[in-house]
Design brief:
229 residues, 11 helices, mainly alpha, Urease accessory protein UreF
């Protein structure tokens, strides 16, 4: 794994900011990752509760699964270790605990690959036989910059935080100032989550979040909803 790096060249920093942007056409804005059902059934009803829920999700779910995958996939892409990439990609698909979570990583991965084809000449060939999950596709793009795995994980986590904060603002609902306070709280927690993700081996990586899985499954039949998960 990479250690925390020196300052990135401006071009690579801008590329990472681009990859983390909610404006990237991969559909991240359309998912709440169980938050919408948590509002309905788990009593998430204000800013503090929503922020606490997302911080827990960052550390207990994202850091131990998708961030760990990004951390391991970036160096694997740089080595052109396609066997390792395929194993990481399979793990993502096999550990999604609800049909909505599986749909999300499939759809976002597919959309990310379509975007990659516009910017990387080798993307079409590489992904022809690899239906990429979202974190594996993201890691490919990050590996084409000067960013370390540490930087890539920071960007991935902040992009997730922006999407989830926007979901909370719409679904709780909350005001824009509350959303910014939530995002600041998540941003303060992200470095710790990334450091944890970087330490995880294959045996330590895991995606076991039973309450989140239950809420995601309940969301599939939720009567009134704004989001796809």
């Amino acid at each position: 794994m990479d250690d925390a790096p020196a300052a990135l060249p401006a071009a690579s920093l801008l590329q990472l900011i681009w990859l983390a942007s909610p404006a990237l056409p991969v559909g991240g804005f359309s998912y709440s990752e169980g938050l919408e059902s948590a509002i309905e059934w788990a009593g998430i009803g204000d800013e503090q509760q929503a922020a606490g829920w997302l911080c827990d999700q960052l550390h207990l779910s994202l850091a131990r699964a998708d961030l760990a995958i990004v951390a391991q996939a970036v160096p694997a892409w740089r080595r052109s270790d396609l066997e390792r990439i395929a194993a990481l990609n399979d793990w993502v698909f096999q550990t999604r605990e609800s049909s909505e979570f599986l749909l999300q990583t499939e759809q976002m991965g597919r959309s990310f690959v379509e975007w990659l084809k516009l910017h990387h000449e080798d993307a079409a060939r590489i992904f022809e036989k690899l239906p990429a999950s979202y974190p594996v596709a993201f890691a490919f793009a990050a590996s084409r910059t000067d960013a370390s795995a540490h930087d890539a994980c920071l960007a991935f986590a902040f992009g997730w935080a922006e999407n989830m904060t926007a979901a909370a603002v719409k679904a709780v609902p909350l005001g824009q100032s509350a959303g910014q306070r939530m995002l600041a709280r998540l941003a303060a927690e992200i470095p710790t989550a990334v450091r944890h993700a970087l330490t995880l081996s294959d045996d330590e990586r895991q995606a076991f979040s039973p309450m989140l899985a239950v809420l995601s499954s309940r969301h599939e039949s939720q009567y009134s909803r704004l989001f796809r998960s």
